[in-house]
Amino acid sequence: MGETPYEWQLLTGSQWLKIDNDHVIETHYCHPGAKGITINTSLGKVFIDFDQLKTDNSALRVQRLSLVPQGQTENIGWYFRDDSLWREYGSQSSSMSSSSISSKDIETHFTQNPQGVLQFSVGSTQYSLDFSTMTQSNLTTGLRRNVRRRPKFPLSNVGFTSTSTSTPLTSPTTYSFKWEFMGDEGQWTEYQAHICSLDSTAIEKQYQQNPQGQVQFRIRNFSYSLDFASMCQVNKNIGTKRSVRRSPDYGTQTSSSLGTNVRWQFQDIDGVWKDYSKGSGQCSVSSPDIELQYQQNPSATIRFTTSRFSYELSFSAMTQRNLSTNTTRSVRRLGQ
User: Fold this and answer.
1) Could you give the CA distance from residue 101 to residue 310 in angstroms, rounded to a whole number?
2) Per-residue pLDDT for 296 more than 80?
3) How many angstroms separate the CA atoms of 38 and 267, rounded?
4) pLDDT in tens, 155-167
5) Residue 322, class by beta-carbon neighbours within 10 Å (0-12 exposed, 13-18 middle, 19+ buried)?
């Protein structure tokens, strides 16, 4: 039945067909913040809505098969949308209160009654989780939040937990986290080492040590303070504030099969090979973005933009073409 614990299929006519390179879809699907993904098919581009498990093409149906051997269960995560992030049940919320239930508890209730309602508490606050609408309600204030149920991406080909021993057969999924600030153009910009004295990895390390603390860093001639509690960055020289966000970076998830060590570069006018990066020149794609498209279709062409121009990248020709000036540059893919 295949080496992976899942299989994504499209129904064309009367036949369910496996989608090639479906690990790319699974990577996105396992990320609780992903609403869907666009894939290339023989019928053109198709968008898969993860919440509804439907496509935007009425002639195509999509399904995800869970290939679970007898006596084992899939490792499932349950998430609610906090003010800024999707958070897993059982983890600490932004108010540092811990839920009385975990993903495993919710999954047990869900499998017993997929249309039911589950009540639980966070501190002294009572909530209800409605499986039929996939929403969580605060029973005091009436505030509703969206809820998502997603599998956790396995780090090996075996992504199950034994029901008889409750012992994981693989390590928990490890996500990197991306730290970004709101830039002048109204776009989120990632902290990167070649611009800032700290990058996402360094900031995340400080955050893990003290989620209510602060970290100091420099960008060019300015000194800044990043306050984790208020999620804002303050310029210590002139006092300006910017919003900051922390989000799981599924593009750098720990798995060699996802091409996380692959770098995409173009040869600039000065002959120097340069990485595709969202942090400089306001490029709309980075190496992980390009790699995901490449794994879907190594013969495809993709389009992207910078602050000034639109481009077309051809995987088969390994070239980048400026759609305004028609200038062509060489492109290369470096892997480990």
Assistant:
1) 48
2) no
3) 28
4) 433 333 333 322 2
5) middle
